[in-house]
Amino acid sequence: MNSDGKSFPITRRQFVTVSAAGLAASAFAHQAHARVGAPEQPAGGPFRVIIDTDPGVDDALALLLAMRSPELKIEAITPVAGNVPLELTLPNALRMVEIAGRTDIPVAAGAKAPLMRRLVSAAYAHGENGLGGAVFPEPKIKQVAEPAAEFIRHIVRKYPNEVTLITIGPLTNVATALNADPELVGMIKNLVAAEFNIYVDPEAARIVFQSGIPITMVGLDVTRKTALTETHVQKLESGQNPVSQAAAKIARNAIAHNRQQGFAVHPHMHDSLAVAAFLDPSLLKFEDYYVDVETAGELTAGETVGYSPIAGDLRRNPAAQKQATLSMPIRGSAPTLASAKTSPVLRDKFVPNTKVAVDVNSTRFFELLIGRLAESR
Questions:
Q1: Angle at CA 99, nearest 5°, toward 248 and 39?
Q2: Beta-carbon neighbour count of residue 342 at 10 Å?
Q3: Cα distances (Å, whole numbers) of residue 365 to 269, 297, 371
Q4: Is 270 a catalytic residue?
């Protein structure tokens, strides 16, 4: 959840380009296996994933997409406070599990608030109930007793180097798990993040992005190319299954809610695109960046800042690029007049920590999303 509406006019993503090039060995060297392209399917079957979420209109469709995707073995769904409070995200997640007929998937309740901040929700975008005002019966199933952060820890330790975290909510649950169990970093196969949520808990996001976990990020400039339209809703309504009908109901209500709020654009599928990015990376174009998260800015807390050796105009010739890689530091802000210190060095070398989506084929994305939700089984 970021500045995707009138309540938050600040753009939460701005990539900063610097001159340097090449890749160097460092604490992030183990990320080399996180390559763009279709993931390599484990010999034993589908990919093990945990979906951390704050449903949320686009989260709800993302969950339904994931549960309709045979490539995924969903080990858990871990709701967190974000788009709406946990008192709503938890039952919304349980509802989606029931609608999809996937009550085999455990749901574990997560954090009720960010690590260090008060919760700022996004009812302006998702409606008071998080589903654009679409009403469904109370869920019959219950969450597991274990808190989400502990549940994440236990699953990752049970399947070391096999679990990908698909994070489509604020990163509070994941950061809590890492704080409690630092060894977990080396056991998580990959993490896919939707940038829309970082504003809610910048401190948690910074812990995750600086952890060394291989990360794929789908940013706002890309997810804003995935507007849900009336045509998409009609295709969902034509689907003859409970998932398609529920998705259509949520989508139609979300579009109506956007109109009522005076938005000139339709709802964007931020989180659904993050799930799709894992299912089929060929839908997007990716580039390597070193990404960090602003936590101190009065106007920019939650903004992601990315450094790239190939973006921008200040490029070097190949020989100079190689030399710059060995010495180019990533610096923090300039010192104040009251300080004699120089600008702090955040990283002594440029080493990418994130594969950042920079473009998307929206047509193919919606073919995947709508096709999977509407198909009969």
A1: 85
A2: 10
A3: 10, 34, 10
A4: yes
Write the pLDDT tens digit of every residue in 19-68.
Answer: 222 223 333 333 333 334 455 555 556 999 999 999 989 999 999 999 99
CATH number at residue 42: 3.90.245.10
282 found inside a domain: yes
Decide if 175 is inside a domain: yes
Residue 343 lies in a domain: no
- Report how far apart the first and last C-alpha atoms of the chain are (Å, whole number): 34
Q: 264: number of CA atoms within 13 Å, CB side?
A: 1
Q: Per residue in 275-334, pLDDT tens?
A: 999 999 999 999 999 999 999 989 999 999 988 776 666 667 777 766 666 667 788 888
Rounded Cα–Cα distance for residues 214 and 353 (Å): 7
Burial 41-63 (b: 16+ CB within 10 A, else e): eeeeeebbbbbbbbbbbbbbbbb
- Enclosing domain of residue 86: 13-304+351-374
Phi, psi of 38 (to 5 degrees): -60, 130
Pull the structure tokens for residue 9.
């006019």
- What is the three-class DSSP state of 173? helix
Pick from 311, 274, 306, 308: which is nearest to 293 by CA?
306
Of the candidates 126, 257, 266, 270, the residue annotated as catalytic is: 270
Question: Does the pLDDT value for residue 228 go beyond 90?
Answer: yes
Instruction: Quickly list DSSP for 326-348.
Output: HH-PEE-PPPPTT--PPPPEEES
**Residue 76 within a domain:** yes
Tell me the mean pLDDT in the region 200-220: 96
Number of structural domains, the chain?
Answer: 1
Q: What is the pLDDT of residues 166-187, one digit of tens each?
A: 999 999 999 999 999 999 999 9
Q: Residue 40 is encoded by which pair of tokens?
A: 């390599």
